[in-house]
Amino acid sequence: MKGRKPNLQNVVPMKGEFKKEVPDAPDFLDDLGRAVWDELVPELVRKDRMEILFRYQFATYCAAVSKFIQATNDLALEGLTYETGKGRNGNQRRPNPAIAAQSGAIAEMNRGAAVFGLSPVDAARLDGGGQGDLFDEVMKQLNGTD
After folding, report:
1. How many CA atoms lie within 13 A of 4 on its CB side?
2. What range defines the domain where residue 36 resides?
3. Quick one: which of 17, 18, 20, 32 has its CA closest to 73?
4. What burial class does residue 64 get, using C-beta atoms within 10 Å of its C-beta: 0-12 exposed, 13-18 middle, 19+ buried?
5. Domains of the chain: total
């Protein structure tokens, strides 16, 4: 490119904060999934982690949270085990099927959380930026700006 390099000190920053559009939750989410959507999506939009293309991917995370809450409620009400009827081996205690549902929902939540940076480790990974310029430090020393 020819010509004088731009002087960034001449640039006047824009004033005010521009609100980005927060997408609505998909219709197929239940009430619990919508509540999760409404709670988290505004913050994801603010952090530039939510675009219209990601809508259904994040909806799967919200559905997983809904399943987790429902399974956890079932376990609280019914307990970890149940008794079978009398059979040839007598009464037996079996694990509540909600345990498997809860475990599956946790796995789904962890996958979705990683994609959208919803854990401290994943947030740091997403906010860390690129690898930087390999010769950036050397060039600063050569130019005397370091």
Report:
1. 3
2. 23-83+92-118
3. 32
4. buried
5. 1
